[in-house]
Structures are given as structure tokens and as C-alpha cells.
Specification:
The protein is mainly beta and about 110 residues long. The chain is about 5% helix and about 45% strand. Strands 1-2-3-4-5-6-7-8-9 form a nine-stranded antiparallel sheet. The longest helix is centred in the last third of the chain and has 7 residues. The protein is globular and about 45 Å long.
């Protein structure tokens, strides 16, 4: 449990102590509602991060560090994220550019 009262569990890569699986209770209701997992190199470098809000089995955000790209799953469709690695990340949905943070909060991401 963190100082904020939120609970999380993590699994770390042996030797590097890099996290590659995490469960979190972001709304402090006693039920895990966030799953994140990563693909790591042998050196513990994060290659890909995946976030699943609500733990429904559908990834909501994929960050590909190796390719410097990201995608968000919004209303049944994958959208590429612009501004990854510089600038303010945003998503173009139905011709409207929206901040990534706003889209993630709408689909259930709760800050930790």
C-alpha cells in the first residue's frame, strides 16, 4: 500500500529490478482495476508497455519504446498517438485532436 492508501503489486525482473507486471487498485475500492505489463530486454530496458484499465482483457494503451510509437484503444478502435517522445501527446479522433491524457481519463485511467 502506498502513502496515498492505494494498493499495488509488482513483479520485477531478476537482476535488473525492472518491473514487468503490475496490478493496481487505482480507486481504493479494494479491487484491482489496473494491469500493466512490459516486454523487457535482458538488460532490463523497457521495450513495450501495455496498460489495461478495468482489467477486462482489452489493452487500452500500448507504448512501444523501441519504435517510439503509442496507440490507444478508444470506442472499439485503435488510434495512433502523436507527439510521443516530444511535445504533448495527442490523438486525432473523428478529425478532432484531443490530448492523450483527456482520452485516457475518459476510458478509465485513474492517476496513481
Amino acid at each position: 500500500m502506498s502513502e496515498s492508501g492505494k494498493t499495488s503489486v509488482a513483479v520485477f525482473q531478476k537482476g535488473t529490478c525492472s518491473p514487468y507486471l503490475q496490478l493496481g487498485d487505482r480507486d481504493s475500492d479494494g479491487v484491482f482495476d489496473l494491469l500493466t505489463y512490459s516486454a523487457l530486454s535482458e538488460d532490463g530496458e523497457t521495450l513495450v508497455n501495455v496498460e489495461d484499465y478495468g482489467m477486462d482483457g482489452q489493452p487500452d494503451l500500448i507504448l512501444n519504446h523501441a519504435a517510439a510509437t503509442a496507440s490507444v484503444f478508444y470506442q472499439g478502435t485503435w488510434y495512433p498517438v502523436s507527439g510521443v517522445g516530444g511535445g504533448t501527446p495527442s490523438v486525432s479522433i473523428d478529425g478532432q485532436r484531443r490530448p492523450l491524457k483527456e482520452v485516457l481519463e475518459e476510458i478509465g485511467r485513474v492517476p496513481f
